Amino acid sequence: METKTKRKFSKISVAVSSFIVAIFLTTFKAVVGIATGSLGIISEAIHSGMDMFAAGITLFSVKFSSKPPDERHNFGHGKIENISAFIEALLLLATSFWVIWEAYERLTGKNVEVEVNFWSFFVIIFAIIIDVNRARILKKASEEYQSQALEADALHFSSDILTSGVVLLGLVFTLLKIPTADVIAAIIVSLVVMQMSLKLAYNSINFLLDSAPIAKQTIKEIVTRVPDVRDVHDIRVRSSGSTIFVDMNIHVNPNLSIEDAHKISHQVEEEIRKEFSNCEIHIHQEPDDSH
Questions:
Q1: Local structure of 246: helix, strand or coil
Q2: Are residues 193 and 226 in the same domain?
Q3: Cβ–Cβ under 8 Å, residues 288 and 231
Q4: In what order do the strands lie in the sheet containing 279-287?
Q5: 125-144 tens-digit pLDDT
Q6: CA–CA distance, 69 with 81 (Å, rounded to integer)
C-alpha cells in the first residue's frame, strides 16, 4: 500500500507540473492576444492567468493539507484544500465578469481591430492539446488521492478545453469577416466558466460545512456485512481534504469479552477501508440487549 509520504510527494509533483504548464500557457496566450487584439484570446489568457494563480494555491494547499494533526488542529489540515477550491472558484467568477463587461463595451461601440493570423490559431490549438493531457492527469490524481484541490485544478483545465474550442470557432468566423464573432465567443467562454465556478464554489462550501461525502446508508450496508454486528446507529461522516472521518455506534453480543468486541470493530474498519481507503474510523461498542 502506498505510504502517506509517497502519496504526499505524488500529489505535490502533479500540482507543481500543473503550475508550470499554467505559467507557460498564460504567457503564450497573453503575448498572442495582445499582439492580435483578439478579446477571445485575451479572455483565454486571463482565464489561464487565473488558472496559474489557482494552480499556485493548489500547490500550497496540497503541500500543507498533508501536515499531520497537531494540538490546535486535531483533525489535520485537510480543509486547506477545500478553502483553496473555493478561492479558485471566486477568482474564475471575477474573471468572467470582467470579460463580459469588456465584450459589452465592444458590442456597444468600443472599436478594437482584431488581427487573425497563424499564431492566433496555433496558440489555441496548442493549448487544447496541452489542456487535454493535463486535465486527464489531474482528474486521475484527484480520484486516486481524493483531493478537492486537484479536482478544482482538473476542472480548470477541462474548462479551458471547452472555452478554447469556442474561441477557435470565433477566430474562424472573424476570418470570414464576421467581426462580432470574437466578442460572442468571449461571452460564451465566460458564461461556461461562470457555470463551472459556481458548481465548484457550491461543492467547496458543502465540504467546509461538513457535508457527508458518503451516504450513511452506504456505511450501514458495509457494516452489516460483518456477521457479529447486530445493529449500527449514530453514523456520522465528514471529510477534511482527502481524509474521511467516520463515527458510529455498533451493537454486539453482551457476553463477548472486551478483546472479542475489539476484534469485531477491527473487522468493521477493514470492511469500510475496502471501499474507502483513506478513512479515520471511530467505533463505540454497545452491548445488544434486543435478543
A1: strand
A2: no
A3: yes
A4: 231-240, 243-252, 279-287
A5: 888 888 888 888 888 877 77
A6: 15
Same domain, 203 and 226: no
| Range 265-290 average pLDDT | 85
Count other C-beta atoms under 10 Å from residue 27's C-beta. 14
Alpha-carbon gap, residue 54 to 19, rounded angstroms: 8
| Centroid of chain to Cα 200 | 7
Are 256 and 204 contained in the same domain? no
Same domain, 204 and 241: no
Domain that holds residue 249: 216-287
Same domain, 260 and 132: no
- The CA distance from 123 to 31, in Å, is 10
pLDDT at site 3: 54
Query: 120: buried, middle or exposed (CB in 10 Å: 19+, 13-18, 0-12)?
Result: buried
Cβ density class 223-249: b for 16+ within 10 Å, e for less: beebeebbebeebebbbbbbbbbbebe
| pTM of the model as a whole | 0.62
Non-local (6+) Cβ contacts of 142 within 8 A are 148, 150, 151, 153, 154
Structure confidence by residue, pLDDT tens digits, 220-230: 988 988 888 88
Check whether residue 82 and residue 180 sit in a common domain: yes
